[in-house]
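Could someone model zinc ion with this protein?
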Amino acid sequence: MSNPLLELSSREFNLIDFSELEDRHYLPAFEAATAAHNAEIAAILAEPSVSFENTLVAMERSGQLLSQLANVVFNKTSSDTNEYLQQVEQKLSPRLTAHLDAISLNPELFARLVELEQKRDAGELELDSESDWLLTKYLQDFRHAGAELGESGRARVAEINEELASLSAEFDKRLLADSNDLAIHLDDAKRLDGLTESELQSLQQAASDRGRKGYTIPLLNYSGHPLLSQLTDRELRQEILQRTLSRGARDNANNTSELVRKMLKLRSEKARLFGYADYPSYATSTQTAKSPERIHAVLRQIAPVAKKNAEAEAAQLNQLLQLERPGATLAAWDWDRYTEQLRARDYDVDTAVLKPYFELRRVLEDGVFFAANQLYGLRFSRRDDIVGYHPDNWIYQVDFEDGENCGLYIFDPYARPSKSGGAWMNNLVDQSRLLNKKPVVVNNMNIPKPASGEPALMTFDEVNTLFHEFGHTLHGLLSDVTYPRFSGTNVERDFVEFPSQVNEMWMLWPEVLANYAIHFETGEKLDPTWIEKILATESFNQGFETTHYLQAAILDLALHETDGDITDLAQFEAAAISDYGLDFAPVPTRYRPNYFAHIFAGGYSAGYYGYIWSEVLDAESVDWFKQNGGLTRENGRRFAEALLSRGGSSDSMGLVREFLGREPEITPLLIRRGLA
Ligand SMILES: [Zn+2]
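Reply:
Sure, complex below.
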């Protein structure tokens, strides 16, 4: 069979032929793709005169084979890996980094960009606004990569990046291995009181997937576990949470401590090569936040109120705990269980009761897709004839209301031992007018796969996560830019969560909920009075949520403010968090250094603050939608035109100001989280 990665796909949607793809194809394809890319760059450098067309447009056209390969291989290694692919990733990541650095650090190429900059400054370059912004961003990318450093500095930066890429791939591998090692096996259901029949079946399924009898509780997410709210066995809850919080940290072959220290050390060295005091100062200089001081100022404003609210919540939970276990001390593994009891008692909302109304396919097609149709006019049709990268892919063609094609959407819902934890969006093909490409977007989730013939019922949080991830998908699908550099989610890291967070608002929008929340057995609709009940709980538990998020955001910055010389990571974590006044035993840090994949394997280094940073814009936009009539095609059109379609093709904060008609403010966020 031939290697489908050796040429650019000319198939429908520019999707490669997955039915022909084999694991052994990736490495030879990498050789071919980098050689092709190098030849394209050499051709640019061989042009005697410098023009926007023969330099920047040519660069945007270059490397397509490599992008195709990178999109396919990294999608595969995160959602369906194996030992061989882990080796491939470990070889490929540092080499890809080195290849891209050789371009960003090429002095001749940079000289051409500077020549264009000078021409522009002298008024000799006539560019449309997206092209003008492309020049600005390329100059920034090259300078941020080290193009202005001396020769030895450039060489050292390239070495550091390569080493960081290897360490990240290794971190990823150990984390997945450790998460699988830490799954809990039970011979019978004695300790599983509180779970529903279908949950028990899916734990049996997880066991049989691993070749075992009995029940397996896999560690699904990076923080917490969906079963903690239901299990009545306190010791089992403790074990699940402690295992979740101990990933990568145990004294075993998959310990990540040394990797963490090395990565912090290298990032700190890199920042100093650029003349910055520490890594967060370097990393945030190209983000919308601009400096860590501005981030700390916002986080320190929120932290004390968040902690105070968390303490008040704990006092309420403790009352419920005392009823069941007099004299016990409230612990982190009690939080979810008693929070659910409290929600049921004070708000008459028991989210477990909602589960039969959240059947996966209905939530996706009649909820998520329905909202996208009402707002953006998108239509979705199943394409079972297209072969995806995994048999559990659900594939949909996406069209605009006028019949024009928008792109392709691949949904990969189920957890499996070969998949990383959590949920995410990525592109297999990036939209661009220059290359005449429509977007192909993937969403991955970790929903326990139901036993065969059974429906997949989702938790409240999973439904919310799906709406969130689909917000990223909309950013990718509705992208309407000329240059691939700006396609969809290619925006600042502290901006990228904004559209996805906005999309969460439609989960509970009355018309949307009425359309998807239908009992899987009886076919009856969820009583609409639930919406008000749930909305009344919006600021409920936000002390906990905010505290446990802020701890991780702060830990990320604090770790990166060091030079990696940390003897005891756990001690360091405790000190950093208590410095912010956020230490509170029943609320443990969402991510601990040893399994903080966002910052050690996910590109969010010194960037985890971005979630709350983007939420300021999210809260403002949600208010805007509500004030303008909510779920209407006209509102969707405005949001898509102003933001979703624009990707990174203009200054991000400028787009927001244009959309809102003013500067965004933090007040709507504080109100939403009960912190005002
Ligand atoms: Zn997100």
